[in-house]
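Researcher: I'd like a structural prediction for the single chain below. Treat it as a standalone chain; there are no partners to consider.
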Amino acid sequence: MNHSTPEHHISQMPAMIRQILQDMHTCITEQENIILEERDAMKVFNAAALTELVERRARTQSILDELESRCQRLMGLSDSQHTMEYLIDAYADDEADMLQNMRIELMRRMQTLEKDHIENHLRLRAAWNVTTSILQHIGAVDVPQTYQKNYATQQVSR
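Model: Treating it as a single chain, here is the predicted structure.
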């Protein structure tokens, strides 16, 4: 029997949807942990931890992007351009309610993650600005010059 027929894939649809949603749950949980760890690292200005967290975030985002591609391919198997919501209702039968609840909860968590990520970005930017300003004020780092030091003098002498 050929297991690559569309009918075979359609019969496996509930299991494939469930696996994608479970994998998304794992990635989102990792992203939620990263958000919390970023906040802790920002409190103590732990640059090494923040750098490692950026790398972890990039890896988990890459996995989420691949999961999105899997969803798109899965939706292509149904010979339509429907949403995941439709696929669950159309093909998941007995598991539809549970899968819809998983999908809705994951969407809610992803929205919260986006908001939390933006907040962390703003906090990190503010901490960077304050730290840079203090270091410039005490002379530990140079203040970037908007104009070349001799520019005004050269313009006047012309």
